[in-house]
Amino acid sequence: MKGEVETGLENVVALESSITFIDGEKGILQYRGYDVEKLANLTYDEVSYLLIHGKNPEDEELEAYSRTLKDERRIGSTLIEVLGFCNFNIEAMDALKTITSLMSHCDPDLNTNNPQANTRKGMRMIAKFPTIVTSFSRLKRGMNVIEPDYEMSHGANFLYMLRGSRPTNLEARIIESDFILSADHELNPSTFAARTVTSTLSDLHSAVIGGLCTLKGPLHGGARMAVMNMLDEIDSPKGAQNFVLHKIEKHEKLMGFGHRVYKTYDPRARVYKQLAREIAMEKNDMKWFEIAEKIEGAAYEEYVQNRGKPIYPNVDFYSGVVYKYLDIPPKLATAVFATGRISGWIAHCLEQYSDNRLIRPRAKFV
Ligand code: ACO
Fold first, then answer.
1. Within a domain: residue 16?
2. CB of residue 307 inside a 6 A radius of ligand 1
3. Any bridge partners for residue 65, and if so which?
4. Ligand 1 centre distance from Cα of residue 107 (Å)
5. Do residues 153 and 176 lie in contact, with contact meaning Cβ atoms separated by under 8 Å?
6. Exposed, middle or buried: residue 226 (CB in 10 Å: 0-12, 13-18, 19+)?
7. Which ipTM was obtained for this model?
């Protein structure tokens, strides 16, 4: 076999896609040709539609899309009962993967694999993920499960089901932006895993479970939980510099920093930083934001000093700070990420089915 091995498939172009564009040198991220910074101000339903259908919805198309998602929010007593059997020490992500698997058994389009059926299955998962994640969180806390509200936006309803009370307007807008900023990122590991499962012509639920299992790891979406734990551990802006130095001395990774593709500031991190500042100000509590800014500053300085080049925050850093202010428990963080990412996975799986070739790379035998 010819050719050198690109470890971790770095810079390997595996397929063509018309969903997401990234310029890692300039820090540009676009879904279907639109900058993510601008999309972050829309509703999740609009961006989800754009990702899945490849175009902006007309008013009546958006209305029908949102109505279907709202009507599909409920998960039913069997799934809630099974959530109650889950080990409450696990991350919500593990419960989400169990319930996604079980959901496939009850799906009306079970055993049908065509574009219309797959779009319906995908929309059911998009609609039900918030209900699964929040129901698990409430059962874990010994609380009653809250039925979805059929009028609130995707994000506002998520916070409502998590807490049992309506979020403020700012909180609702911020969680909506969070879901949008998390919705897609080209061939990230979980999307590649989902597309690989799809390429075998397996079913959509299996592909999404592949994505969930991959997102969970701390080098990918699991970093968001690690960032929240890091903020708790540091606990005061004064502790940030030493924490960073200690990481450098021990040759340990700083969670929420670095990226395979971005060689500069992750554009999503910039938006999340602004959201974190806004929510900190609304709550009149700058503590977590100030710790985060100190970590960012120390990381920049110390990595330049010690390693000759800076490291920048990625999507998981300031999103972790935002989650602290939204009272999202750390063990829920990756599942909340998945609640946004599900639209991207569905869009990619539909694209893969539409022009499929089995994904099957080679290994160099040594
Ligand atoms: N802390 C310290 N150093 C880092 C970090 C970090 N977070 N990230 C990269 N580096 C350094 C490495 O030590 C290495 O330095 P060297 O060239 O002197 O040996 C260099 O940057 C390249 O690092 P790799 O780990 O080889 O880069 P890779 O592209 O394989 O990894 C990854 C990318 C996994 C995201 C890495 O930056 C990391 O582990 N970050 C922390 C975990 C994290 O935040 N993950 C979330 C990523 S975003 C997402 O998936 C949703």
1. no
2. yes
3. none
4. 39
5. yes
6. buried
7. 0.98
Residues 238 and 292 in one domain: yes
Whether the CB of 39 sits within 6 Å of ligand 1: no
Q: In a 3-state reduction of DSSP, which class is residue 31?
A: strand
Predicted confidence at residue 4, as pLDDT, reads: 85
pLDDT per residue as tens digits for the range 37-62: 999 999 999 999 999 999 999 999 99
Distance in Å, CA 11 to ligand 1 centroid: 15
Query: Ligand 1 within 6 A of 334 CB?
Result: no
Residue nearest to atom 32 of ligand 1 (CA): 259
Query: Does 91 fall in a domain?
Result: yes
Amino acid symbol at 23:
D
List the residue whose alpha carbon is closest to atom 16 of ligand 1. 307
Looking at the whole model, is its pTM more than 0.95?
Answer: yes
Q: What is the pLDDT of residue 1?
A: 55
Residues 191 and 340 in one domain: yes
- What is the Å distance from ligand 1's center to 311 Cα? 9
> Is there a single domain that holds both residue 77 and residue 163?
yes
Query: Which tokens in the block code for residue 170?
Result: 């700012």
Please tell me whether residue 28 adopts helix, strand or coil conformation.
strand
The CA 185 to ligand 1 mean position distance, Å, reads: 17
Protein residue whose Cα sits closest to atom 45 of ligand 1: 219
pLDDT tens, residue by residue, 205-249: 999 999 999 999 999 999 999 999 999 999 999 999 999 999 999
- Catalytic residue (one of 259, 327, 348, 355): 259
What residues are paired with 257 via a beta bridge?
A: 313
CATH of the domain at 93: 1.10.580.10
Which protein residue's CA is at the shortest distance from atom 17 of ligand 1?
Answer: 307
Domain that holds residue 145: 28-215+331-354
Q: Report angle CA 212, 338, 118 to the nearest 5 degrees.
A: 75
Mean pLDDT of the chain: 97
Domain at 320, CATH number:
1.10.230.10
